[in-house]
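HUMAN: You are asked to prepare a plain-text protein record giving the amino acid sequence and the backbone structure tokens, both parts labelled.

ASSISTANT:
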Amino acid sequence: MTERPSALNRLGRALDTLTRATAHLLFLGLLAALVALAVAAYRSRPRVPKGAALVLDPKGVLVEQLSGERTPNLAGPLLGLSTRPAQALLRDVLDALRLAKDDERIAALYLDLDGFRGGGMSKLRAVREALLDFKAGGKTVVAYSEALTQRPYYLMAHADEAVLHPEGLLVLEGFGGYRAYYREGLDRYGIDVHVFRVGEYKSAVEPYLRNDMSPEAREAALDVYGDLWATWLEDVASARGRRPEQVQEWIDTTLEQLRAARGDLARAALDAGFVDRLARRDEVRQRMIELVGEDDEGETFKQVSWRTFLAAHDGDRRPKGRGDGVAVVVAAGDVLDGRQPPGSIGGDSTSHLIRRARNDESARAIVLRVDSPGGSVFASELIRRECELVREEGKPLVVSMGSTAASAAYFISSAADEIWARPSTITGSIGIFALFPTVDRALAKYLGVHLDGVGTTSYTGVFNPGRPLDPRVEEAMQLWIDDSYRNFVARVAEARGQTWDEVDRIARGRVWSGADALELGLVDRLGGLPEAIESAAKRAELGEGYRVFYVEEERSLRDRILEWLLSAKGTSAPRAGSASPVGAGLRSVENELGRLALWNDPKGLYGHCLCGEEWP
């Protein structure tokens, strides 16, 4: 006979049920509130005051695509903690300047560069062009910062009024890069990193082989840096009414300039004509009031933030109509295998976006915007195949290169009908490498650990990092790398209408600037994304008024709520030391090690130049 539960047990179960129901109701209520807030934020049309100044204050680095969270975590945003580096979408910055130029409600631009870390030269030049276009409309640009390095300063130089805080600093050091080399440390701790590569210029693996830069890597880097620096000098000198050699001389004599200013960095920048005046925030605020008047509260100048302004123009940014047009697919970040979040190129996810564009009948042409230093060879092969299928169907495919499109990213790009690059784009680096570390000496020396065992063939366990690498495997790996390189060069040669030997002479892992790449036949035209889109439209014989739309991953409601929370809690705040040269040096090591942790090519083969936004 079954015992009936006691009254106390029944009461406990009832309370438990009530508690669970209450928790579910609270969760649903919170979710409904978040949805309502998110919908309200998306649907509300912000007001733009008449005669206001547009406040443009991009934080972090300029990117082609905002990075998605790999492991979304609500705890950080809710506690006000930053979960990712600050980023500013290049497309948003350009749209804000373009729309503000023709908006009669915008009377001036206030460019706040505190917390801005810059970006690749091609991105900075695109913003420069938009600033010059804005100024051509007769509207004043006032730029302000408390501490500047050369990439943010590049934008300040083009303002009508460049203002630096009296206690601020301007650090101009030229373009270059220093990397950590690990050979001595690896030997000291008994770690062997077996490197397989083709190309004396494939310097991405040099830190595991040497304690310094090879002559070949030095030659290639100086060539590319020299082209980028010449561009920076020419643009800055022109904007500040100087000659490039005058700017170069001032940087080379920084110590003498600082002595003359008695150690006052801000005064030295003013005396040299790099800025127009020194002023504190309240003084700059007063200057802006003189230009556009006070706000309704009488606390500051009449203004609208660039993000609010973009929200007010949301309808103007959406593709018009439903007719035929040009589809744009963004491929930004390291090339990785599988499905990847925005900000990385996934072999599966990016292929899917290209396939969607290919199957969209309204997409008469496709522009692939590539901004990547490379990565997985296998993933790039998958993406390149999707590009080939686009061309086989007769749809024009045009590649527009951003700041970087090198190695595996160039491999992808080579499948296009036409390649556009900026003169300052970093491209080429046609080459492949693989790494395999073994720690048998370290285990024996420091831990007294030795591996032994049996196998059914002589190759069993050859990839165990605790064992020495079998010489047969070393030879097999190099043969494999050699074959992959031959295939890489052959694909490029076929696509570019050159012989294998012609491509090999300019390949071998060497990076080139976009200007050099044009002369070498690696790209077809020099220009930015707008020019590439126009070329694709002409190839598709689209008339005037065609639409341009982006093919992107569809975001779920959960993703939208998460994005809203991240934005609302300010998780894009700049990281400490964003304007510090020391901080930049530490970040370069962090970025390189973090990159290695993400690499996941199933064959272990990589085409990467280990260059990108850390290159100026």
In short: The chain has two domains: 52-172+240-314, 323-608. Residues 7-43 form the longest helix (37 residues).
